[in-house]
Amino acid sequence: MTSLPLTRSGVQAQRSAGGRVPVRANPWPGRLSRVARLYGPLALYGLFTLIPFYWMLVFAFRPAGSDRPVPWPLSFANFDTVWNGVGFSTFFLNSVLVAVSVMIATTFVAVAAGYALARFRFRGKGVFVLVLLCTQFVPGAMLLIPLFVIFKQIALINNLGSLIVIDTVFQIPLAAMLMSTFIRGIPFELEEAAMLDGCSRLQAFRATILPLMQPALVAVGSFAFIGAWNNFLFALMFISRQDRFTIPVGLSYTLGQYNIDFGALAAGGVVAAVPVVAVFAVVQRYLVQGLSAGAVKG
Amino acid sequence: MPRSLRSTATRVVSAALVAATALTLSGCGGSSSGSSSNGVTTISFWDNNGGPTRTPYYQELIKRFEAANPSIKVDYLGLPADSVQQKYDTAIAGGGTPDIGGVQQSYVAGLIARNALEPIDDVADSATLKGNIDPKVLDTIRSTASDKKLYMLPVSVNLDILWYRSDEFAAKKLTPPNTWDDFFTAAQALTDPAANTFGFSIRGGAGGTQALLSIMYAYSGVQTSFDSSGKSTINDPKNVEAIEKIAALYGKETSKADVTNGYKEMSAEFDGGTAAMMVHNLGSYADHQKNLGAGKFAAEAMPAAPDGTRTLVANAPDGFAVFQASQHKAEAKKFLEFMLSKDSNSYWNQNVGQLPSNLQAQKDAWVQANPALKVGQTTLAASTTHIVDVPRYLPQYGSIVESQMGPKWQQVLLGKLSAKDFADQWADLTTKAQADWVAKHPG
Fold first, then answer.
1. What's the CA gap between A40 and A34, in Å, rounded?
2. Which CATH architecture has domain B35-156+316-380?
3. Which of A101, A144, A240 is closest, CB to CB, to B77?
4. N or C: which end of chain B has fewer CB within 10 A?
5. What was the pLDDT predicted at A28?
């Protein structure tokens, strides 16, 4: 007897001929099958992703000189080094201030720009969108010197304001595009109904659109926060005062010319990662929704 | 959005905006260069390798300087070693250089070429320092500039040496290599691929060609970078022989992973017990001391050439430079003189594990008690030691050595390029760059 291969077309051919479909025996019974097909790959992927984090925690909490694969006995000496010795207590506050400000400014501008792109027709709109996209192709390092000169002329060198401005400017294009895609997915009739009830455009936006935009606000805000939190180049170049550096510059202090303090580097990595992980933990349920907005709309 | 969440969000937004605006408006602007007020002059000092292993000692020295000079205040800024050149480049182009900064000779030529630095021969000739800074190192620094002036002064003296695992040498009853024959014999004897232990660690990745220069000139004993006709000596037959012999160790007496070794990987092999010997400067002493502890490692001068002479390629020293744009050059030079004075120089180098540049400080008991630094000091002072000044003044030097020849050195290790072709290409590029430089700097 010749058995047909178990393909969709083969099965359909047998069904249409009224024959019995041969069922290949499942080599994994019941629960085991689910474990092998679903949880197995997930666990592998999880391990692949989490092992570097585990090592970071081991190095951060392990006492100096220990080579145990577990961080026991727990030691906070590395955290003391980075927090008090390297100066993370100051760098952390600076980073929080910059990242939160960039998050707010980016979200605000992106909402306004996204709304305009989604709801209005105006001359040059296509070119504007193209220019917006093109700014993403310019690496920040290329703009260092002109930006340095501009910031110097407006007295923003050695000022966290320069980081807030430049990080916001670099975040806006992508954020505005994302926001406009999301707003386009919200029916205009909702605003129209509010305006028929006497609302101005701004009132209609606040009453009908803004409450629906939570996922997009979260996605754009968290991306802006993380982008600003991780920015090393601008923080190093536009700041020349020790008490105004941010976390990424502080992390680089643990990498000397001839030596690396792995314990301090890992502890610094934990300090740097905590706010980002916390942000993701809070916003993760909105994030996928915000990022995929408009993805399947015609 | 729930009302409570909305009001919290509003408060957060308002607070952040107010804070950001306040910061933006209140921040101090202007250049990084210092300022004067109330009779106190503030000078800015950038450390080119900031971090917890160096910053506290600089801060202590600054405290001592300010106590001795109440009219001068020093603003310290530690910079990450990997990014310091980019920071200087941006500051020079944008006009925000410090009054005084930490520099390495390897990139000081580029700063001189852009007129960013102030000549500081007068500091070297000051009452405190005259005759007290190692003259061989000063000559090396002078060779960086076409006008032969001093644009930096060294804080430490450095040279390449052979680091070896004294515990493994003792276990195999080997003596530290004095000649290159000893070196190759020891490399073979200390190799046991089954136990993943190798006699030597080759630096095939970042910085590998610079390390190779040290090895090949030490092996060949060739004492100049150019012959009398201006031709590079890199492809001298004895140098080619050295390249062939070192490349022949790859994969046999070295790990195959060495082809991508930078300093950190090479040092990790040495400290981790995979490699029994490595060539690096005194800068790695603190690393070995921390990772291995005393008694497991030692330093030996680079093996001698067949005629008994030791030829060292001048190591780019770490030091300080005063910037041309400084408004307070006198104060900056005063600080520089203080930093290189005997007590400050000794304090600094003792804490970072380097050999002081101040000859008086080199006589201190802690230097004599440190075997690795003692080897460095003795080697430099020996009459049989010759220093080869590599042409770091060439604008293309870094590009030739690292960017162009670095990948080709890896090809040599992998057997895809012959040592002769490699040396010829390197010599041709260097000879041409030298000819261009001579044409632009007649006399």
1. 9
2. 3-Layer(aba) Sandwich (3.40)
3. A240
4. C
5. 64
Per the structure block, which two tokens stand in for B275? 């490699």
The Cα of B416 is separated from the nearest Cα of chain A by a number of Å equal to 31
3-state helix, strand, coil in chain B (%, to 5): 50, 15, 35
Closest alpha carbon within chain B to A78: B52
Nearest by CB to residue A160, choosing from B23, B94, B283, is B23
Residue of chain A minimizing CA distance to B10: A104
CA pair distance B429, B436, nearest whole angstrom: 11
Structure tokens belonging to residue B441:
């700097």
Q: Can you tell me the distance from the alpha carbon of A15 to that of B229, in angstroms, rounded to the nearest whole number?
A: 90
Q: Residue by residue, what is the 3-state secondary structure of B260-325? A: HCCHHHHHHHHHHCCECEEEEEHHHHHHHHHHHCCCCCEEECCCECCCCCEEEECCCCEEEEEECC
Answer whether B35-156+316-380 and B160-314+394-440 agree in fold: yes
* pLDDT < 50 positions in chain B: 1-5, 23-32
Read off the amino acid at residue A217.
L
Report chain A residues whose CB lies below 8 A from the CB of B278.
none
Q: Which long-range contacts (CB under 8 A, 24 or more apart) does B287-292 make?
A: B287/A258, B287/A259, B288/B163, B289/B353, B290/A259
Question: DSSP letters of A92-132?
Answer: HHHHHHHHHHHHHHHHHHHHHHHHHHHH---TTHHHHHHHH
* Separation CA B78–CA B86 (nearest Å): 14
Contact predicate B76/B62, CB 8 Å: yes
Q: What is the pLDDT of residue B38?
A: 78
Q: Which domains does chain A have, with CATH numbers?
A: 87-256+265-291 (1.10.3720.10)
Q: Average pLDDT, whole number, for chain A?
A: 86
- Buried/exposed code over A142-175 (b: 16+ C-beta within 10 A; e: otherwise): eebbebbebbbeebbbbbbbbbbbbbbbbbbbbb
User: A104 vs B13: CB contact, 8 Å cut-off?
Assistant: yes
Question: A214 touching B, CB under 8 A?
Answer: yes
With 0.90 as the threshold, say if the pTM is over it.
Answer: no
Place of tokens 């220019």: A131
Give the span between the Cα atoms of B174 and B182, in whole angstroms.
9
pLDDT score of A66 more than 80: no
Residue type, B106: S
Q: How close, in Å, is residue B119 to chain A by CA atoms?
A: 24
In this prediction, residue B332 carries a pLDDT of 97
Tens digits of residue pLDDT in A125-175: 999 999 988 988 888 888 999 999 999 999 999 999 999 999 999 999 999
Mean pLDDT calculated for residue range A220-234: 93
**Could you tell me if A84 lies within 8 Å of chain B, comparing CB atoms?**
no
Instruction: Note whether A94 contacts B: Cβ–Cβ < 8 A.
Output: no
Chain segment B397-434, per-residue pLDDT in tens? 888 998 999 999 999 999 999 999 999 999 999 999 99
- As a whole number of angstroms, the distance between CA A92 and CA B146 comes to 46
Beta carbons within 10 angstroms of residue B205's beta carbon: 20
- CB–CB of A183/A119 below 8 Å? yes
Burial B297-332 (b: 16+ CB within 10 A, else e): bbbbbbbbbeeeebbbbbbbbbbbbbbbbbebbebb
Q: What is the pLDDT of residue A6?
A: 44
- Distance of alpha carbon B247 from alpha carbon A218, whole angstroms: 56
Kindly determine whether residue B20 and residue A97, on different chains, have CB atoms separated by under 8 Å: yes
In CATH, B160-314+394-440 is 3.90.226.10: no
User: CB–CB of B90 and A259 under 8 A?
Assistant: no
pLDDT class of A291 with cuts at 50, 70, 90: low
Handedness of CA B177, B182, B183, B187 (dihedral sign): negative
Report yes or no: B303 and B180 within 8 Å, Cβ to Cβ.
yes
Domain ranges (residues) in chain B: 35-156+316-380, 160-314+394-440
pLDDT of B146 reads: 85
Distance from CA of B414 to the nearest CA of A (A): 27
